[in-house]
């Protein structure tokens, strides 16, 4: 059995189109080369919402957005993490180690080692960010895309700060993923220190009334609640809890600041 057979068992929509081409090349480079026939079969192993999903080569017939599975999210993460890490022209060992440590915490050591091996091969490729991101946008649900964005900022911040080139690349990805400016700025504010960050996280301004603050908090709790990504599996639900805690911290900060 291929060392990366676990991918085919969990991925539905991701292994088609530009993402499928990237993963296929990475698998071959990693030593898991397939004949063209076997690779085609491999790319169709995943299921999504009870049916096979194909697009990218001959288009796709999509009546509704398929549910994102753990493998879909994982492959999307591997590719976009590579884009962000290379944004400033330097592959920082701290960022690579962060990716590896996150994989270990999410997937366990054995699966993480395989994922990181694949990631290193992906990292050697020139990736068309627009094509990959648009494929993800078409097929991935909104809560999962928000979680993906949060992880990309985590990677950028892993060496101590998010540099301008990284932020611009993440902003570009967010645009392709159809993440609006309010959602983007809310997640971005979790990784910067400024006097109004707590308000940005709740998607309000300092001029908001106390009642508006409370309403904004309730809205953000619903948006970022970890249960929104429970379909990705416990490994990614835990990652969503970090984002959720930032919302709680922001609200507590504003409460203390205002004496609410």
From TrEMBL:
TM segment ranges: 6-28
Presence of keyword ATP-binding: no
A Pfam family recorded for this sequence: DnaJ
Keyword Mitochondrion: no
Keywords for the protein's UniProt record, in alphabetical order: Membrane, Transmembrane, Transmembrane helix
Residues annotated as domain J: 197-259
This protein's name: DnaJ like chaperone protein
Organism: Bizionia paragorgiae
């Amino acid at each position: 059995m291929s060392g990366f057979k676990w991918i085919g068992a969990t991925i539905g929509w991701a292994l088609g189109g530009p993402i499928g081409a990237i993963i296929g090349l990475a698998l071959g480079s990693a030593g898991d080369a397939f004949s063209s026939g076997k690779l085609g079969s491999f790319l169709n192993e995943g299921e999504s919402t009870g049916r096979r999903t194909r697009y990218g080569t001959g288009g796709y017939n999509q009546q509704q957005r398929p549910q994102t599975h753990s493998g879909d999210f994982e492959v999307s993460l591997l590719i976009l993490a590579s884009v962000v890490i290379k944004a400033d022209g330097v592959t920082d060992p701290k960022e690579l180690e962060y990716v590896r440590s996150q994989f270990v915490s999410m997937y366990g050591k054995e699966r993480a080692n395989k994922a990181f091996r694949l990631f290193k091969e992906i990292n050697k490729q020139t990736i068309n960010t627009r094509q990959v991101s648009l494929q993800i946008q078409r097929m991935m649900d909104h809560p999962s895309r928000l979680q993906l964005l949060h992880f990309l900022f985590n990677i950028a911040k892993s060496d101590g700060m998010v540099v301008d080139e990284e932020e611009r690349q993440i902003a570009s990805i967010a645009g392709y993923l159809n993440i609006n400016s309010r959602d983007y700025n809310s997640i971005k504010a979790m990784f910067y220190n400024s006097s109004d960050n707590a308000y940005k996280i709740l998607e309000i301004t300092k001029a908001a009334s106390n009642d508006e603050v409370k309403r904004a908090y309730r809205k953000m709790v619903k948006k970022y609640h970890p249960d929104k990504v429970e379909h990705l599996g416990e490994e990614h639900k835990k990652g969503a809890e970090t984002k959720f805690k930032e919302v709680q911290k922001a609200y507590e900060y504003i409460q203390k600041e205002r004496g609410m």
